[in-house]
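Subject: for your reference before the review

Hello V.,

The reviewers asked for a structural picture of the protein, and I figured it would be easier to keep everything in one thread rather than splitting it across files. Below is the amino acid sequence we used in the manuscript, unchanged from the supplementary table.
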Amino acid sequence: MSDYSFEYFTVRFPTDQQYVAHVEINRPERLNAFIEVMWLNMAKIFNKLSSDPSVRAIVLSGAGEKAFTAGLDVKAASEGLLSSETSTDPARKAAFLRRHILEFQECITAVERCEKPIVVAMHGFSLGLAIDLSTATDVRLCSRDSKFAVKEVDIGIAADIGTLSRLPKVVGSYGWVKEIALTAREFGAEEALRVGFVNGVYDSREATVAAALKLAKLMASKSPVAVQGTKEILNYSRDHSVQDGLRYTSVWNGAALQTQDVSAALLSGLQKRVPTFEKL
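And here is what came back from the structure prediction:
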């Protein structure tokens, strides 16, 4: 594997999980709260994994027992981006803030844009930015002790990194999203499962990560042409009409159906053996 050394993150490639990468947020002493270098590094990691032919599926989790991530490090932000000092006029400060917000959004979008499917394993405090980040992944799992909240109204801002755009599409209920976003109330694992925010609830952090790795391993065992195409088409269709989605699928599969993976998969089924696929 090429070098995946990035501050505040640990990237592993489990030997018993072929083609799976495990990305762990690693700032447990601060509940994995994000400072600027973290979201910049996270974008670099997922951009790199996206084109790595040795990776077919990814697990994202948080180090430590207390939190997946407590969100934005508010203390650091209050001394920097959210500082009340106004050394320039409002128009110039607005231009600076807009560019900074767009850069932050782009770092989260790098997770969604990653070509490989991503399974997130959340536990403990999963607040604010945790919702932005998890809604940019493909499958969400959590431990029974998870505590979720869209916290931004409690610090005087509207969530601006992705939650308000992605969460309604994940759960399919604007009423529920408006309730939790306007109140900043906490909700737990069972409610998250009931509304469709998470796919499964497990007894501990370790069990959640193990389940995520198992799911990622299964995804990685499939044709990477098929898996990556499926993710691309699903994400496109989510944001477009049915007819647009069908047209895009026809163009995509016009090329993808020519892969040798189709015959490899069909023959392995007939011969009752596990298929192998070339790197993509």
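For the response letter, the relevant points are probably these. The longest helix spans residues 90-113. The beta strands are 9-12, 20-25, 57-62, 67-69, 118-122, 125-127, 139-143, 147-149, 187-188, 200-202.

Happy to draft the paragraph if you're swamped.

O.
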